[in-house]
TrEMBL record:
GO-annotated cellular components: cytoplasm
Pfam families reported for this sequence: Amidohydro_1
Family as reported in the entry's similarity comment: Belongs to the metallo-dependent hydrolases superfamily. HutI family.
Protein name, entry field: Probable imidazolonepropionase
Domain Amidohydrolase-related per the UniProt entry, residue ranges: 81-425
Keyword Glycoprotein: no
SUPFAM superfamilies referenced in this protein's UniProt entry, alphabetically: Composite domain of metallo-dependent hydrolases, Metallo-dependent hydrolases
Organism listed in the record: Catharus ustulatus
Organism classification: Eukaryota, Metazoa, Chordata, Craniata, Vertebrata
Sorted UniProt keywords: Histidine metabolism, Hydrolase, Iron, Metal-binding, Zinc
């Protein structure tokens, strides 16, 4: 019995309550993901501290909390409750969209042709450098709101459209401001090695990052002004080669940052092998990863953050998700939201992962929850519905959770509530009047 205590939230009698996992697993590999933990006719309680206090059969919870009071009770009959989605890879702070480049790509130009001609990341850098901090923040805030409404409650956010120290810090301050003022959870990534700035060689840019950028980040962290979690490099032919990548990642690790970088996207670079050797928490993209790289990542428990929107948008070959899963890699998903791949929606990302990368719906959900949380070093607090974890949840207006993936682009009418730390941060009233079928 819970006694007369007060709690923040009671979700009552969900048709399905998708725990994802229930034994404090820090990740789910293929076999674990195949049998996701799902309860039927279940309830969940979140405490005043925002953490989950109980989850179980509705009648058991009812008896246990008979005398308790709740700030809010939501009747979930006929609905499903899932963990908030975790987006493990985004570039959401920028000015200047690239819709004109979308047209060029549709007409046949490749990503690298546009980049080498001074467009792509360079175009966005030019606009981001000119934008004020407030302008960047306003656009970022709106993007985060859209992510939240699409079900993401924890999002990795990169800098990387400044390249010079001043603009990189401006971006990181914008991320910090959102972290403090918004409900959505943020994992912040320094990505000063996103491209080689115009007028510098890769070696000069690498030296600048190691000698100037990283010491400044360390100083700001010590002063409690900016909290950066991860370090990223775009390890790619014509951008940062393997040796420069190694130098930057090692220096970042020495500064206390988790390694989480772009690798083996357009060309095989042996990024996976390098990441495994350096103890990287995650590597993103991996369309061109080698067989040895896959084995090394599995052994090193280095998560593969797969980005189905990139391969779709750029018509690249798909990352070998099946092979990675079979070899025991921890597979996570990200939207890769950026001016090249303008997609906020993890439900759509999961759908693409299922159709184009041949993942099952269970594998896709594990990849967008517990495994994405692992890729950010946060699976002890996020990514599943277990007692003690943060009460980040979705309620969908359907009696089977798989509708979240099956209805491609249908999440806007399907997601009924988004909840962070037990507090409703988005309520979609349209759901009450609409049938989900
Ligand atoms: N590949 C490098 N970075 C981004 C694209 C960034 C951009 O084009 O602005 C990505 O992950 O897809
Ligand atoms: Zn990226």
């Amino acid at each position: 019995m819970a006694g007369r205590q007060r709690y923040r939230l009671l979700l009552e009698n969900a048709e399905q309550l998708v725990l994802v996992c229930g034994r404090r697993e820090p990740w789910l590999r293929r076999d674990g993901a195949a049998g996701l933990a799902v309860l039927r006719a279940a309830s969940l309680v979140v405490g005043l501290d925002g953490c989950i206090k109980a989850v179980g059969q509705a009648d058991v919870i009812r008896n246990q909390f008979l005398e308790a009071t709740f700030e809010r009770i939501i009747d979930c009959s006929g609905k499903c409750v899932l963990p908030g989605l975790v987006d493990a890879h985004t570039h959401p702070v920028w000015a200047g969209d690239r819709v004109h480049e979308f047209a060029m790509k549709l007409a046949g130009a490749s990503y690298m042709e546009i980049h080498q001609a001074g467009g792509g990341i360079h175009f966005t850098v030019e606009h981001t450098r000119k934008a004020t901090e407030d302008e960047l923040f306003t656009a970022f805030q709106q993007r985060l709101e859209r992510m939240l409404r699409a079900g993401s409650t924890l999002v990795e956010c990169k800098s990387g459209y400044g390249l010079d120290l001043e603009t990189e810090l401006k971006m990181l301050r914008v991320i910090e401001r959102a972290r403090k003022s918004m409900d959505i959870g943020i994992s912040s990534t320094y990505c000063g090695a996103h491209a080689v700035p115009k007028g510098k060689t890769a070696t000069e840019a690498t030296d600048d990052i190691i000698n100037n950028h990283l010491p400044k980040l360390k100083e700001l962290k010590l002063r409690g002004q900016i909290h950066v979690n991860n370090i990223d490099v775009f390890c790619e032919k014509g951008v940062f080669d393997l040796e420069s990548t190694r130098r930057i990642l090692e220096a970042g690790k020495d500064t206390g940052l988790q390694i989480n970088f772009h690798g083996d996207e357009l060309h095989p670079m042996k990024s996976a092998e390098l990441g495994a050797e350096l103890g990287a928490r995650a590597i993103s993209h991996l369309e061109e990863v080698s067989d040895e790289g896959i084995v090394a990542m599995a052994r090193a428990k280095c998560a593969a953050v797969l980005l189905p929107t990139t391969a779709y948008m750029l018509r690249l070959k798909q990352p070998q998700a099946r092979k990675m899963l079979e070899e025991g890699v921890i597979v996570a998903l990200g939207s890769d939201f950026n001016p090249n791949a303008y997609c906020f929606s993890m439900p759509m990302v999961m759908h693409l992962a299922c159709v184009n990368m041949k993942m099952s719906m269970n594998e896709a959900l594990a990849a967008a929850t517990i495994n994405a949380a692992y890729a950010l070093g946060k699976s002890d607090t996020h990514g599943s519905l277990e007692v003690g974890k943060q009460g980040d949840l979705l309620i969908i207006n359907s009696s089977r959770w798989e509708h979240l993936i099956y209805q491609f682009g249908g999440h806007e009418a399907l997601i009924n509530y988004v909840i962070v730390k037990g507090k409703v941060v988005y309520e979609n009233e349209r759901c009450e009047t609409m049938s989900s079928y």
